[in-house]
Amino acid sequence: MLLLVLRLWRLSRQDMPTMLLLVQYVSPLGLLSALLIALVWAFPLVVLVLAVLGRLLQVSAPDRFDPERSLLAYGTVRTPGWVLVAAIVLAALTWQLRFLPLLLMLAGWLLALRTRLRHPDRPRRILVTTVVLPVVAAAASYAWLAPAVPGAVGEGELATALLLVVPPLGAVVLTGPVPRPVAPALTRALAYAVAAVVPLVMGVVFLRVPLLPAVAVEVGPEAGPVREVVRGEAVTVTDRMTIVLDGRGEVRFLPNDHVRGQLLCPDPGRIPVSRVDVYGWHVEETALDWMIPRQAVGRPDPRCLGRVPTVDPADASAPSSPGPAASSGPPPRAR
Fold it and tell me: What single string gives the DSSP state of each residue in 20-41?
């Protein structure tokens, strides 16, 4: 709820009357949909990190693992296995490619720690989940991501290079307990860090998500040409007015008699920051981007840039019919 209120407050440019107007017309379902789509990545991150920390505490210091006194221990015990599997699948679909090695590391840690707890009397199974599987997964990850690492270093994207190199190695290193004296303090500090950083990142991401459709409204007299193109976000359309929030944060009340036309401006998509790709898969794209392709965006309409069209759009979009006028030579003489 706090994120929704802050998003409306930012959209209104911190103007209370404008915010109250948006609250009156903006659909709650639209707000929740935007919140869900923008922050779907946060659920598996929180679930997996806290589950790993809880199992690490249980393996390293069993006597300090008390579900009645520790929220971390209580959440670890009460989280069923199907929730963890669903979180891994959701993360595989919604996390960017450069974060998939991190998912591999978290899933490997979780599997190794749960195996140590549930099957302490089966050394072969423990050896497979703590040594063999992490080594095989790290080798496969490096074989797949190897072409992207030099490219990331060459482009100066050290953060991307580290995200591709370090997590597979970490999946091999930390598959067992840590020293008992430091386990409670370490897991508690990391849990507090996650609880402090994740909400902050969620707020920054959600505050940039569009909530209203971007439109371009042509304004002019009924019998005259278009005088102005109002570029902004459509708030609502009443019987007499079309309400638009323009780019300066001002609310425009346009009489419907003067509205000559409206155009829905497509979202050009998020401008990529990284130039690195892995066999054609851009590191900032998710698996859903490949499974559900986005609508192709053509040349931007000048009206979506706030420009008054010099040619009537209907005439401009009409195809030219081929005929004798297209030839460069003179017309044939009639006999």
Answer: HHHHHHS-HHHHHHHHHHHSTT
| Three-class DSSP category at 116 | helix
Retrieve residue 108's tokens.
């490997």
Angle between the N-to-C axes of helices 42-60 and 100-118, in degrees from 0 to 180, rounded to the nearest 10: 40
Determine what percent of the chain falls in helix, strand and coil, rounding each to the nearest 5: 55, 10, 35
Contact 229, 300 (CB under 8 A): no
Entry pTM: 0.78
Kindly list the domain boundaries of the chain, sorted by start residue.
2-206, 212-266+301-306
**Predicted confidence (pLDDT) per residue in 5-37, tens digit:** 788 888 888 888 888 888 888 877 877 888 888
Domain 212-266+301-306, CATH among 2.60.40, 2.30.30, 3.30.70, 2.40.30: 2.30.30
CA distance 222 to 151: 57
